From TrEMBL:
Keywords: Cell membrane, Membrane, Transmembrane, Transmembrane helix. Residues 7-85 form the DUF202 domain. Its main location: membrane. This is YidH family protein. It is found in: Cell membrane. The chain crosses the membrane at residues 15-39, 60-78, 98-120. InterPro entries: DUF202 (IPR003807), IM_YidH-like (IPR052053). It is a multi-pass membrane protein.
Length: 127
């Protein structure tokens, strides 16, 4: 029997959930980075000349999301090993919040707001 098996299993499930989340963020970043292909196609289908489209912003935001996804994996791995050591330790330790999680959340919120404004502007330019 493995001591504290349920705790270790829960730690591993949490780690894998973070990895899945990071992969989703990275996939969305890749999709966003390639958003210029959609804009190019949309302008060719349009029956009028479209001006004011800026695809550089989507490229940078997509690359930023790829980086955030990689950082999520690094942070999740660090947290997994720290929790594993804590589970194995004989003494109790407090469960704390980490500033990196707050910074990552704030960064994702800022990126989401920028993306919302960016897409709205692109749609307005197409319409």
């Amino acid at each position: 029997m493995i001591p504290h098996f349920t705790d270790h299993a829960a730690n591993e499930r949490t780690y894998l959930a973070w990895v899945r989340t990071a992969i989703s963020v990275m996939a969305f970043g890749f999709l966003l980075e390639r958003f210029d292909i959609f804009l190019t196609y949309a302008t060719r289908v349009s029956d009028r000349a479209v001006t004011g489209l800026h695809t550089r912003a989507s490229e940078w935001l997509g690359l930023g999301l790829l980086l955030v996804g990689a950082l999520i994996i690094l942070g999740a791995t660090q947290r997994f090993y720290r929790n594993r050591r804590t589970i194995e330790a004989a003494e109790s330790s407090p469960y704390g919040d980490y500033w990196i999680a707050r910074v990552m959340s704030a960064l994702l919120i800022i990126m989401a707001l920028f993306l919302m404004l960016y897409v709205a502007r692109q749609i307005a330019a197409l319409g």
